[in-house]
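Project outcomes to date are best conveyed with an example. Our students and postdoctoral researchers have been running inverse folding experiments weekly, and each run begins with a structure described purely in tokens. The record below, which covers 495 residues, was selected by the lab manager from last quarter's runs and is presented without edits.
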């Protein structure tokens, strides 16, 4: 164990491992190499997180346990961030082939005693062949906690901050650092496009591809289509839907229920809609209602305005927008991607509501974006950029001629508590760091589900929308586990 004294000394923890911790008094020690360190011999991360890291080829190189409290009066020589906050700096040996295009990349993962998870990315080291990670020193200080309720999420620690350095390989040695290519590789292998019979959202094994007879069966009457959101899949995104509600909907639609699984990072929603239309055999005409989640709402809107709309093989009757970013989300800004993955990682840790497949689905996508940021990959991700309110994609969608569908909306104003409050609010405890004062479900601003800057069919009228209040604590990935959502779907669909 090494003592921290609040100064800016560069302290050796092990061979070529150094830490500077200005403003912190306490101790730091190298822990047994494990995901996010260990606590009394127990891994601090759950099997869900461990499995996701393994699927994405992350390996732990170093783990630090930090037990420190802040002091005032840090000198001007301290390394500071852009907001002038003193930074804790950790330097570790570089790995992989040397040179400007290494074949392995390191990232750091910090977990605190309130369950907040944040990712940190490599900086130039102060010495050759070292990689440096900078973490705001005040985020590493241990806070006094209220008694625990005994629950734990993906990460659970008490009284210490855990800082782990992980490494992952590039897709191929010397690969070009383009974020879209990294996302495309992962999605081609893990989120390929496909249209399947959706036998039951809770049974991911029952997703069977649609053949020629299946398409003809879907065309015998109005069908129900499910379109998932960012990072997700059909069985993950809708897996929490109540079984009795599911059975009723399936009966109403004569079992003509199907889902569209698709990539959500490497291509935009127009490309998703075009791919879906390409699956429909010649001579088949479908009339569909669409249940969407998150970015899936944009895919459904793109489907409704795919040219030429008069001869489209899919006619859209209703679109249910559940947490859809119809007015965009600030988290889709390429400069906010780091905030996006921190927020999603923490939410999946503290609020894993619904089936485990939902958490696992999203974790894999989050880790893919971590890789992209860690590689300093250039360019935006088309699937996320489409949700950026500062870009042209959403206004262009709103100006397109669309089929005359009927829209419905379900949104939420989520009130954070505990660690989530600390994550989402600024130092004054009032302003959300990403959305300002706007109500939001942690990912999408509440009003943006039923408003779309003058687009046809918006705003969705009050009688066709539901809003979860703050006291209900419903965040972006928890909608389909709620009875109000099931009731709304039954009121709006198949009647």
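After processing, the design step wrote out the following sequence:
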């Amino acid at each position: 164990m090494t003592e921290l004294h609040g100064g800016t000394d560069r302290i050796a923890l092990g061979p070529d491992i150094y830490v500077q911790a200005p403003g912190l008094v306490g101790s730091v020690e190298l822990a047994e190499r494990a995901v996010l360190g260990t606590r009394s011999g127990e891994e601090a991360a759950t099997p869900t997180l461990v499995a996701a890291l393994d699927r994405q080829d992350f390996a732990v190189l170093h783990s630090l346990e930090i037990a420190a409290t802040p002091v005032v009066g840090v000198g001007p020589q301290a390394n500071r961030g852009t907001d002038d906050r003193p930074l804790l700096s950790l330097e570790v040996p570089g790995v992989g082939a040397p040179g400007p295009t290494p074949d392995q990349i390191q990232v750091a993962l910090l977990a605190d005693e309130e369950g907040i998870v944040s990712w940190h990315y490599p900086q130039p080291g102060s010495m050759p062949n070292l990689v440096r990670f900078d973490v705001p020193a005040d985020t590493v200080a241990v806070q006094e906690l209220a008694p625990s309720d005994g629950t734990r999420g993906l990460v659970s620690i008490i009284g210490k901050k855990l800082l782990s350095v992980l490494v992952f390989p590039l897709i191929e040695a010397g690969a070009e650092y383009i974020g879209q290519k990294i996302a495309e590789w992962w999605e081609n292998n893990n989120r390929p496009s496909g249209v399947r019979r959706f036998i039951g959202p809770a049974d991911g094994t029952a997703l069977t591809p649609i053949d020629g007879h299946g398409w003809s069966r879907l065309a015998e009457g109005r069908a129900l289509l499910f379109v998932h959101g960012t990072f997700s899949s059909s069985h993950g995104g809708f897996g929490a839907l109540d079984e009795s509600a599911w059975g009723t909907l399936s009966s109403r639609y004569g079992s003509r229920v199907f889902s569209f699984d698709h990539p959500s990072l490497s291509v935009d929603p127009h490309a998703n809609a075009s791919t879906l239309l390409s699956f429909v055999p010649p001579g088949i005409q479908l009339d569909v209602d669409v249940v969407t989640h998150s970015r899936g709402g944009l895919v459904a809107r793109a489907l409704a305005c795919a040219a030429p709309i008069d001869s489209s093989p899919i006619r859209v009757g209703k679109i249910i927008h559940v947490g859809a970013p119809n007015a965009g989300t600030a988290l889709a800004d390429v400069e906010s991607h780091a905030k996006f993955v921190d927020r999603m990682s923490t939410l999946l840790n503290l609020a894993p509501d619904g089936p485990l497949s939902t958490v696992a689905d999203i974790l894999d996508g989050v880790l893919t974006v971590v890789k992209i940021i860690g590689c300093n990959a250039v360019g935006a991700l088309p699937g996320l950029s489409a949700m950026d309110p500062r870009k042209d994609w959403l206004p262009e969608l709103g100006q397109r001629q669309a089929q005359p569908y009927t829209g419905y909306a379900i949104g939420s104003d989520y009130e954070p508590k505990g660690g989530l409050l600390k994550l989402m609010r600024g130092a004054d405890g009032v302003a959300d760091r990403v959305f300002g004062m706007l109500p939001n479900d942690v990912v999408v601003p509440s009003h943006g589900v039923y408003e779309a800057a003058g687009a046809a069919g918006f705003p969705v009228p009050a009688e066709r929308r539901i809003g979860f209040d703050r006291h209900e604590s419903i965040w972006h990935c928890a909608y389909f586990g709620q009875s109000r959502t099931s009731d709304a779907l039954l009121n709006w669909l198949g009647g």
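Residues 37-43, 144-158, 427-431 have pLDDT under 50 and may be disordered. The chain has two domains: 2-144+155-169, 177-492. The training component of this project remains on track.
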